[in-house]
Amino acid sequence: xxxxxxxFDLELKVLLEAVYLRYHYDFRxxxxxxxxxRMRHAMSRHGLERLSDLxxxxxxxxxxxxxxxxxxxxxxxxxxxxxxxxxxLREHAVPVLKTYPSIKVWVAGCSTGEEVWSMAILLExxxxxxxxxxxxxxxxxxxxxxxxxxxxxxxxxxxxxxxYQAAGxxxxxxxxxxxxxxxxxxxxxxxxxxxxxxxxxxxxxVFSEVHLVSCRNVLxxxxxELQDRAVGLFHDSLVRRGFLGLGAKESLQFGAHAADFEACxxxxxxxxxxxx
Length: 276
Description:
Layout: H1 3-23, H2 32-45, H3 51-60, H4 62-72, H5 83-97, E1 103-108, H6 114-125, E2 132-138, H7 141-149, E3 151-153, H8 157-166, E4 177-180, E5 183-186, E6 194-198, E7 210-214, H9 224-237, E8 238-245, E9 261-265, E10 270-273
Parallel strand pairs: 1-2, 1-7, 2-6, 7-8
Antiparallel strand pairs: 3-5, 4-5, 8-10, 9-10
Keywords: Methyltransferase, Transferase
InterPro entries: Bact_Chemotaxis_MeTrfase (IPR050903), CheR_C (IPR022642), CheR_MeTrfase (IPR000780), CheR_N (IPR022641), SAM-dependent_MTases_sf (IPR029063)
GO molecular function: S-adenosylmethionine-dependent methyltransferase activity
């Protein structure tokens, strides 16, 4: 590692500590390589030469920090992303969820909401939405606002529709949205059971008695310590034999809670909490 990179990482640690003390957002255990890349992008975007310049603006201008949150967090998602995962939910999780009189689903790190709306559509098609509560959580206020709006760019609908069909969709995705506001507006009825909330996997506590946790493509941005904390939250939130879904590049294999889950579809990263 070059001296320049070492100094940048040192300044990065100072910045993250300052953000935690000033705004109570904890990014101190996020993966350094990803943060390094995103902070350089933020500096370039705002014409800043040094990370200390970014820190100065972040600490002295809360409005700027609200904008800079888009660089601290990653907002990349799509509806029915990795269709095989949603097909696995239909095959393995849905038959079990149907045995409960009511269910709770937690979509952790929901970003701009593509997965939340996907989950709502899946539960609607399986006759479960009316007896479900979906907790959609993220630490980024702007992302949560976008998620709750349920409005997505029209040019993304072709991809979303292909994903939906590959995931075992029962109808046409267009049945669930209308065009307006310059985009595709999803049916308000789908979010009647959704609770959007600010929640940090780094600092906040568990949700209780959840039947399915879906946290996909979030852990890859955490270091091992924070990954273990997050998976521990999921374990403690789940009912006995509850389901946990992760992203395609994520695994429980080498984590502190590997023995607390068993795979019901290892290829699609769908697990169940063990009975013990």
